[in-house]
């Protein structure tokens, strides 16, 4: 998501778009341009920097960074505590360029895409070939480079691993200005470093993404639990089974009334009479969200399969809700909700999100304290919770996961009301996030942050743990001047490797 709004009508802006030589001049001769940037997280506003719209990856290859080069801020991730901070550097808008996608439809199909491409566009183009990527994020209006720099996790990750495990090849411009093609077999150190590398080693310009035959339809199912142990047992059983659902997620429901009534707009209760007697008021509930993909000629078989899988689960029987949607509708579901929020002015608000990876052995302790003591009011956004198998995670990437075979992704996806000083205000939610993190640390849960935010190198060192030395070595190899993504506050230009 790259939405950059210019505060000033700077005369360079049109030149940037139209001339390569101006681009290179700007990179080598620092000048100031005031840019107003908003991102979905909206916790920082004013930047003092350049804006570059790349015309092709070959532009970068003529770039020779030197000690005085401005920082490349990438697409910006800035820790939540840094607000209204003035930063000098260059923002590269990867979305500004649209290049054609190239499909390969052999035994192992794939697509070559520009890194600024949105996943939703890849989905639509792939479907024309009867194909689709295997692993997704819940929201598809994100760039390939953005999600591959983190991980790209959704309900398919238990089977396919995150998006970073479903890429065959990358083209990267390193911090030294070299344009390098890398894969598992060619320049593997850079390939794995950049995947989950938080934009620290290079700018991904192209990616080769693995595809599979696309289904046409999806049976989308929600069931409720009041017992956390039964909920997690069922989730863990489902992700470890061979013949299981194609998508497995879950979420926590705290202090919500009229919940099932809301669902009725998109889901049908299996037993409407029983469902009407179910009362969710006040209780903390856990919703298992699962989906089975199918093609219309397989409807009977898939229904039998679903009945069989559901019969093995311990959910509250009256709370079985079903829906049948197209594959595109299912994958693009968050965008549809987002459009509704936008209409109400509830999308362009601060989103102080906290994403944690919690080891399986600690999830009960975590849930007891966090859902029982810390989040006692109703939550300010969805709280996702679902397990993944570490065996599906390639441990050569820069992505850090907890030290256990199964871990839970717990995502507190809060929205803050801009002028509120109450429990839905930014300050309150940030303090609550801090309490959760403090508890995890005090209880020594071995939790890792996903989409991490830290303000000191010491905290980053702890985050990376045994992977820190490799991370530092890769930084000194591929971005020795530490000009890439300084907003993460992992390395500083002057003292990158002290
Ligand atoms: C509404 C929403 C829903 C989300 N849902 C999920 C989800 O379900 N699962 C999940 O895993 N994540 C999710 N995310 C997080 C998402 O994966 C990251 O925020 C990701 O960075 C978004 O990509 P972007 O295109 O918005 O990147 P940006 O915000 O533009 O960039 C973020 C950072 O990524 C790096 N970066 C971006 N492009 C490149 C590049 N080409 N080369 C090198 N580095 C680059 C830079 O360091 C940059 O600072 C969600 C985010 C949002 C806003």
TrEMBL record:
PROSITE patterns linked to this entry: FAD_PCMH (PS51387)
Keywords of this entry: FAD, Flavoprotein, Glycoprotein, Membrane, Oxidoreductase, Signal, Transmembrane, Transmembrane helix
EC number from the UniProt entry: 1.5.99.12
Principal EC category: oxidoreductase
Transmembrane segments: 12-37, 44-64
Catalysed reaction equations from the record: N(6)-dimethylallyladenine + A + H2O = 3-methyl-2-butenal + adenine + AH2
BP-aspect Gene Ontology terms: cytokinin metabolic process
Stored InterPro entries: Cytok_DH_C_sf, Cytokinin_DH_FAD/cytokin-bd, FAD-bd_PCMH, FAD-bd_PCMH-like_sf, FAD-bd_PCMH_sub1, FAD-bd_PCMH_sub2, FAD-linked_Oxase-like_C, FAD-linked_Oxidoreductases_BP
Pfam families for the chain: Cytokin-bind, FAD_binding_4
GO molecular function: cytokinin dehydrogenase activity; FAD binding
All residue ranges annotated as the FAD-binding PCMH-type domain in the record: 28-214
Positions in coiled-coil regions: none
Keyword Transmembrane attached: yes
UniProt cofactor(s): FAD
Family the entry assigns: Belongs to the oxygen-dependent FAD-linked oxidoreductase family.
Protein name, UniProt field: cytokinin dehydrogenase
Species this protein is from: Actinidia rufa
Organism taxonomic ancestry: Eukaryota, Viridiplantae, Streptophyta, Embryophyta, Tracheophyta
